[in-house]
Each structure stands twice: as C-alpha cells, then as structure tokens.
C-alpha cells in the first residue's frame, strides 16, 4: 500500500502443495484494477473516435502520430496501475503530461469548426484515467492538482469557457476529488482495523500467558507461602518471598503496575527458587482425543464424574483447554467451598457441541465477589475459565446462589459445526 499504510498479511497455500505465499489484503487493490480496465477501455474509445473522424481533422497525420504515441505508451505501461508499488510519482507525472499534451495539441491539429462545435479532444475521456491515478495514489490533494491542470488545458483548447466545457471540467474535478477523499478515508479505516487486530492479538496472547501463570506459577507460589509459614525458620523466609512474588504477578496479570521493592539480585534469587519448584510444562497433544480420558482423573472421594458410554472425541488442543478449565473450576471448589464440599462433573456429547457442567454444594459465591476478585488480581474465573472458553469459540456460564452452591456450564462447539 501507499502513504505508509500496510495491510494485515495473510497466508495462502499455492496449488500443488507448494511453498505458502503471502497475500496482502487492501481496500485499494480493487480500485487499481478498476483503473487498469478504465485506461484500456477509454483508449479503445479514443481510437474509435479518431478513426471515425480521421478525415475531418485539419492535420490528420499529426493526429495519427499522437494516437500512435498514446497507444505505444499504453502498451508499455498498462500494468503500471495494477498495483500501488508500480504506480510511481514519475509515472503519474508522465501520464498526466501525455494527457495534457493531447488536449493542447487538439487545438492545433483539429479544425476550428469542430472545436467550436464541442468535438472531443484527441485523448478524449482517457485523460480522466491520469487524474484518477493521482486520486488513488495521493488522495484528494493530488486529485485536485491533476483535475485542475486538465481543466485549464481543456479551457485553453476550447478557447473560452463554453457551457459544455465547464460542465465536463466540473464533473472531472468534483468526481476525482471525491474519489481521492474516499481513498484517504479507506486508508485511515484500514490502519485503524490493523491496529485493532494487533491489539486484539496482543490481548489474547496476554490472557493466554496470564492463564498459564495462574494455573502454574501462582498456585506454586501460594503453596510455597503456606508451607513455609507452617514449617517456620528459613522456610518461612522463602514463604514470605513467594508471597511477595505472588502479589507482584497477580498485579501484572490484572493489568496494574507494581513498584519494585526488591533489588535485581534478590529478584533473580527468588526466580531461581521458584523455578526449582515449578513443574515443567507438558507437551501439547495433537490429533483428536477422548475428552473423558482427560476428565476422568479429576474424579475422587469428593468429586463425581459422569459421561456418556462412548468416547467424546474433540480436537486435542480444545480438549486440553476444556479440561484445564474444568480443573480451574474444581480448584475454586477446593479453595472456596470448604473441606466437606462435594463436586459433580457432567459431560454431555451433543451433535454440534460438547457441554461440561461442574456443580458443587458449597456456600455459593456472594454477589459482586467475582468483580472484586478480578480487581485484586485473582483471575481464576475470568482467565482460566471464561478466557479459555472464549478462545475456543465457546462460552462459560456461572450460576451461583448463596447457600445453594455454584454451577459452571462450559460449552465448546465442534470444529465445522
């Protein structure tokens, strides 16, 4: 694209399994292709007018020389307006110069009677293509300059401001400036869209990292803090440092900023301590897998699991994320529902989607507690559950009544459903 605008790149695979090629999406490309067609068609129209009126020119040989030069120019440069990179400023200046030369030569080559009667100039409406090229390339300002030069040349060729000349001049001037303005608006919209897509991609990546932090590092830090406080001694100091890092990470996850309170050496030492107790991430599975096999290990003395009698196949990545969301829901039950609380997992295999329901008989969630937890940096529901389901194209509905437990319904659509 021109004017410092870049379209968001896409990837498409060439036929025959060849190397993928980059495809640029741009609102300008159809305009350039339309301009190419316009120049070719209007050249044919100008040549047809020339052949029909050949004997009526005062100097037909001069008209033939100009039309021949115009045809050669088009044969050499027809593809210069198929893409913005090829349509340079030098080409636009030369193209506009040829159009202006043809308009001014008409006053010398054609007869005074034909000019007075409103006969078409040698390039005829082909000259509009040069003005449209300026409009698409440089916006309404370039269009105003190009159309003004064409208007002046037409007035000079006609020898006065005749009504039909004024009408044609105003039509070219207004339409070219309008097209140039539309192109500028389209460019601005495309830049805004590209920026929005970048922000959305960055936000999704940040949420994914936040989920990983919540499911791994934060839980390990919380465990170290509790165990250190219980053991005492040097372990208590380790627990205190783990608690500080947990607060810092929760603040970052929530999008806030935390002023540094420890030196770089201390932070490096703390990070090394955390790495010694953080489990290594498992490799991501590939291919379809049975979701029941991922959910069944959650069953235990206080957790019941029920599912259909047949395997529930789901894309491996989606199944892993859904199982992680179920694990996050069960973690919330263990932390907030109390020691004696029970939980039930129900897996339903529908034709177009997979539904997993996690229910507990705990005290429920007080109104406004989830919003308070997000502000405090505790993003278990927002990221580990709802964020995962949103990335899968599904949904997570949480229903809780104080004193009657909590129910989380997770829905994931099947691929192609």
UniProtKB/TrEMBL annotation:
Question: Which SUPFAM superfamilies does the UniProt entry name for this protein?
Answer: ATPase domain of HSP90 chaperone/DNA topoisomerase II/histidine kinase (SSF55874)
Q: Where is the Histidine kinase/HSP90-like ATPase domain positioned along the sequence?
A: 317-416
Matching entries from InterPro entries are given as: DUF5931 (IPR045975), HATPase_C_sf (IPR036890), HATPase_dom (IPR003594), Sensor_HK_TwoCompSys (IPR050482), Sig_transdc_His_kin_sub3_dim/P (IPR011712)
Q: Which GO terms describe its cellular component?
A: membrane
**Keyword set, alphabetical order:** Kinase, Membrane, Transferase, Transmembrane, Transmembrane helix, Two-component regulatory system
Instruction: Provide the GO MF annotations for this entry.
Output: phosphorelay sensor kinase activity; protein dimerization activity
Bilayer-crossing regions: 31-51, 57-78, 90-109
> Which NCBIfam families did the record assign?
HK_morpho_MacS
Report the protein name in the record. Answer: Signal transduction histidine kinase
Task: Tell me which species this is from.
Answer: Streptomyces netropsis (Streptoverticillium netropsis)
